[in-house]
Amino acid sequence: MDRLNSYLINFPRTQLANTPTPLEKMPRLSENINGPVYFVKRDDLTGFAGGGNKARQLEYSFGDAIKNGATMILITGAVQSNYVRSAAAAAAKLGLACHVQLENRVGGMPGIYHSSGNVLLNKIFGASSSTFPIGEDEAAADTNIAGIAKGFIKKGEKPYLLTLSADTKPLGSLGYMRCAGEILDQINDLEQPIDAIVVASGSAATHVGLLLGLRLLGSKISVHGICVRRDTHQQIARVEGITRLAEDLIGCGKLVEDDDIRCHDDWLTPGYGKTNQSVYEAMALAGSLEGIVVDPVYTAKSLAGAIGLYRQGLLHKGQRILYLHTGGMPALFAYENEITTYFG
Length: 344
Known about the structure:
Elements: H1 2-8, E1 23-25, H2 27-33, E2 37-42, H3 54-67, E3 72-78, H4 82-93, E4 97-103, H5 118-124, E5 128-132, H6 138-154, E6 159-162, H7 172-190, E7 196-201, H8 205-216, E8 222-227, H9 232-250, E9 262-264, H10 277-290, H11 299-311, E10 320-325, H12 336-343
Parallel strand pairs: 2-10, 3-4, 3-6, 4-5, 7-8, 7-10, 8-9
Antiparallel strand pairs: 1-2
Helix pairs in contact: 3-4, 3-7, 4-5, 7-8, 8-9, 10-11
């Protein structure tokens, strides 16, 4: 950890997550699949504003915001964004105003999708909000939120923008570099090696931070990113680009080789925020066998990937596989109609 800390020490951090989170075996799931031995890193239990991976990411973003004298946070993301919800809560906790821009990335959803789950929590955390009709144009969303920021500047605020374009300064990845060290310490305590880690890969901050953190600490554990928004080709390009930005940010030089970036889109269909049979299977298995909740947008797809990679022969019987649970439970309630129909 000393080497990792030497790279992170100059970045201000505001603690939000309750860490370390547990690393647990999933014995009943492992028995059911009859293949790898599955473990889970419980970052759904980070304990801040509903839990999830965004707490770790936002520690460095809010550290930077406070260092720069921000009075207000502006953030753009999907309607049921966990990132947006966590940022609204962090702003409330730290005494900052917050405005959220909700991008309509998932068409054809019922009214409950636009009023419950994370949307409701944003309101409880005191954030103001606006909508943006274009769901798949990050540059346009960033431009629009920058325009909104100008209006707040005229009112005397000093806004700090949280955007998701691939060229955004990857401060969020620093939180998962720290998490990589936490995971390695826990693996050492287990006295059992981990052969691979499986994680949802969307904005890619978690994927990049975890992969780069492992390599900084000398670990060669493979990391498999399960695509939740883009296809394999697009996501590999995104992860690679953000990895290079993160390497430049901390000044470590190139540590992650191009062929070390693994992404899989087999569980993405029919697209971001849309469900499929493998999603429901993962939700049912996690819930009924381990008492763990996974959500339709991110974690059910990534768990489906952790299972599916074995079925495809990319992971093998007897291997020890760590599934990184990134949270997202509040969004579950936005899918009440679909989930109720499936489970009866």
